[in-house]
Each structure stands twice: as structure tokens, then as C-alpha cells.
């Protein structure tokens, strides 16, 4: 089990992580979400053991992880970190990259392992290709296979699917996360993509300016977002005043609601003017204006710009 205890960290004078604590069981998946600069990559690098900690402690089970001042080679053996740059050797092939740290003692076992991992990341056809001839997304997949080759107990992924097109991303994500579960490998993913959290994480940490805003089951965070910042990490979101959506209310209490929680209704209490309709596949996202405030809601069809419509809020949906 990984334990991070009260970690506070600064590169120079400004603290970029403040009093971070977390626990992660074997096989558990944690996603870290937060705006750019909130400290996600720094936290992964600290857990990997790249930076010396003045304040706070790391443990793997009972064992204290001491960091770069105590390890000859920075980075713990049993942890693999796939950074935002992929750290591949450009002039050897994909399969040689993946197998770089595997023993040559059992060559057949080694090639079987490499083939398995290339299949997992969907790159079997590129085994003999050099990384320089691959796209950014393909290189990202080689880096993931290379990290897994060494059978880590904890995998740290920094924006792992950022360069991979949607078509490949969905299948890769499914395969990878079920592989990690089957092997009981813990994983921490720093991500911008809400799907990484909602569908695959057991726990989600929301970071803002180096602080944990919340750490919980992603379904609970989505359903009861603490504030607009948390909700907005899961997609488009509205912040309305209670008096805007509840008849007879005069309260200025802020209410966070998602576009799917506002429906067009003749008797709707909230009146907005439509600005734009964006096709989303299964529905349209409608951008509208309430006074000068933008309000997003979902609808089955596009709506003519300039039209005034009434909306009803259903916060339970
Ligand atoms: P994220 O991954 O969430 O975008 P980072 O962990 O990369 O955030 O950065 C957190 C903060 O630390 C930012 O303000 C960033 O500018 C700063 N920072 C990151 N790396 C360094 C570094 N090597 N030296 C100094 N400041 C850094
Ligand atoms: Mg980052």
C-alpha cells in the first residue's frame, strides 16, 4: 500500500504542494484532476522519488521511501513513471524499447512478454519500427508498454492519453485499466480527461493550487460537486442563483448544475435567450444567455439563435 503523509513541496520559494496525504491499496486506481499548474506532475514525480522531501513522508507498506538523497539511481524500482515526454530510445525499434530492461537470459520468454504488451497497447504491427517514425500518440503507447514490461507494483501515468486519438483512446483505456486490475497493479493517473476519472478510477483527487480540494469516489464527486471548480473538471457546468431556478425564492445561494439538469419546459421558471447550438452526437449542447450570464443546457434538437425559451431545473437527474 502507498501512503503519502503530509507532503508539502516547493521548487523555489512558492509552495506548489501543500499538506498532501493519501493512501492507495494494491490494484486501486486513483486519478488526479486539476487545472494546469495545480501540481499534478509534481506529485507524481515526488511519489516516484525524483525530489527530496523536506516536509512529509512516503511509505510503501511499512517501508519508508527515502527519495533521491538516499537512492543511487533516483526513482523506486517497483514504481514506473510514464512522463509527459516519453523517454524512448529513438534509434532502436519499438520492441527493443519495450524490452530494454528485460533480462536476455530467457529470450523466448522475453519475446513473448514484449508481444503481449505490444498487443495490449495495439502496436503489434509496429514492433520493428523506430520511435522516430511513430506519431506522438504511438510513442506514448510504447512508453506505457515499456513501463509495464518491468512489472511495477505502482504505475504513475502523466496525462497518458493526451496525444492518442479518440478512436484508439477508448479501447486502449479499457484494455489498460482492466489489465492493471487483473495484475493487481496500483495506478495513479494525472489527467485532464474526465472519462479517465468517471469510468476507470476508484478514487479521484481534485487539486487546486497545490491543495487537495476533495478526494473521493468520482461518482460522488460528480453527483455532489463541492463547488464550480470541481464540477467544471467533469465538463460544461452552470452556476446559477437559487432565485433563478426556484419559484418564489429570493435566495442568492449559488447552485452548480450540469447542462443535462436543465430541460426546456413551457412552465419553466428560468427564461434564457439562445445563442448557439453545438451538435454532440446524442444531443445538442445549447449555449444561452441569462442577463449577461452564459447558461448551458442539453436538448434533442438545435434551437434558433435569438429565441427565448423557458427552462426547468431537475437537480436530481
Ligand atoms: P500540473 O502537472 O498540474 O500542470 P505541475 O506539477 O507541472 O502542475 O506544476 C505545479 C507548479 O510548479 C506550477 O506553478 C509550475 O510552474 C511549477 N513548476 C513545475 N515544475 C517546476 C520546476 N522544475 N521548477 C520550478 N517550478 C516548477
Ligand atoms: Mg503536468
Jot down its keywords.
single chain; 317 residues; alpha+beta; Rossmann fold; OB fold (Dihydrolipoamide Acetyltransferase, E2P); 2 domains; six-stranded mixed β-sheet; five-stranded antiparallel β-sheet; 9 helices; 17 strands; globular; binds adenosine-5'-diphosphate; binds magnesium ion; P-loop_NTPase
3D structure, described in words:
This protein folds into two domains: 2-231, P-loop containing nucleotide triphosphate hydrolases (Rossmann fold, 3-Layer(aba) Sandwich), CATH 3.40.50.300; 236-313, OB fold (Dihydrolipoamide Acetyltransferase, E2P) (Beta Barrel), CATH 2.40.50. 26% of the residues lie in helices and 32% in strands. The chain has helices spanning 40-48, 94-98, 107-120, 136-149, 166-182, 194-200, 218-223, 228-232, 242-245, and strands at residues 2-10, 15-24, 29-33, 55-60, 63-65, 79-82, 154-158, 186-191, 203-208, 211-216, 238-241, 254-257, 262-264, 270-279, 284-290, 293-299, 308-313. A hairpin with a 4-residue loop joins strand 1 (2-10) and strand 2 (15-24). The longest helix is centred in the middle third of the chain and has 17 residues, at 166-182. The radius of gyration is 23 Å and the shape is globular. 34% of the residues are buried. It is of the alpha+beta class and 317 residues long. The mean pLDDT is 93. The chain binds adenosine-5'-diphosphate (ADP) and magnesium ion. Residues 11-12, 16, 34, 36-42 line the site of adenosine-5'-diphosphate (ADP).
Amino acid at each position: 500500500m502507498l501512503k503519502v503523509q503530509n507532503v508539502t513541496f516547493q521548487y523555489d520559494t512558492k509552495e506548489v504542494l501543500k499538506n498532501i496525504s493519501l493512501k492507495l491499496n494494491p490494484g486501486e486506481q486513483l486519478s488526479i484532476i486539476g487545472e494546469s499548474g495545480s501540481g499534478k506532475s509534481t506529485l507524481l514525480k515526488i511519489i516516484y522519488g525524483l525530489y527530496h522531501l523536506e516536509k512529509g513522508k512516503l511509505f510503501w507498506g511499512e517501508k519508508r521511501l527515502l527519495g533521491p538523497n538516499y537512492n543511487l539511481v533516483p526513482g523506486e524500482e517497483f514504481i514506473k513513471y510514464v512522463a509527459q515526454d516519453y523517454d524512448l530510445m529513438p534509434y532502436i525499434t519499438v520492441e527493443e524499447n519495450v524490452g530494454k530492461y528485460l533480462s536476455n537470459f530467457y529470450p523466448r520468454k522475453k519475446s513473448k512478454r514484449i508481444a503481449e504488451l505490444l498487443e495490449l497497447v495495439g502496436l503489434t504491427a509496429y514492433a520493428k519500427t523506430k520511435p522516430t517514425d511513430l506519431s506522438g500518440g504511438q510513442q506514448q503507447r510504447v512508453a506505457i508498454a515499456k513501463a509495464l514490461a518491468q512489472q511495477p507494483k505502482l504505475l504513475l501515468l502523466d496525462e497518458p492519453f493526451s496525444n492518442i486519438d479518440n478512436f484508439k483512446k477508448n479501447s486502449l483505456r479499457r484494455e489498460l485499466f482492466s489489465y492493471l486490475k487483473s495484475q493487481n497493479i496500483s495506478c495513479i493517473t494525472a489527467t485532464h480527461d474526465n472519462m479517465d476519472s468517471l469510468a476507470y478510477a476508484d478514487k479521484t483527487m481534485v487539486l487546486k493550487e497545490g491543495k487537495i480540494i476533495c478526494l473521493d469516489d468520482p461518482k460522488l464527486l460528480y453527483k455532489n460537486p463541492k463547488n464550480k471548480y470541481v464540477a467544471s473538471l467533469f465538463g460544461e457546468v452552470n452556476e446559477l442563483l437559487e432565485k433563478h431556478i426556484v419559484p418564489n425564492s429570493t435566495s442568492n445561494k449559488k447552485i452548480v448544475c450540469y447542462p443535462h439538469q436543465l430541460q426546456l419546459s413551457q412552465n419553466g421558471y428560468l427564461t434564457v435567450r439562445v445563442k448557439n447550438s453545438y451538435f454532440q452526437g446524442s444531443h445538442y449542447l445549447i449555449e444561452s444567455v441569462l442577463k449577461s450570464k452564459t447558461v448551458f443546457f442539453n436538448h434533442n434538437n438545435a434551437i434558433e439563435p435569438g429565441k427565448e425559451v423557458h427552462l426547468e431545473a431537475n437537480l436530481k437527474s
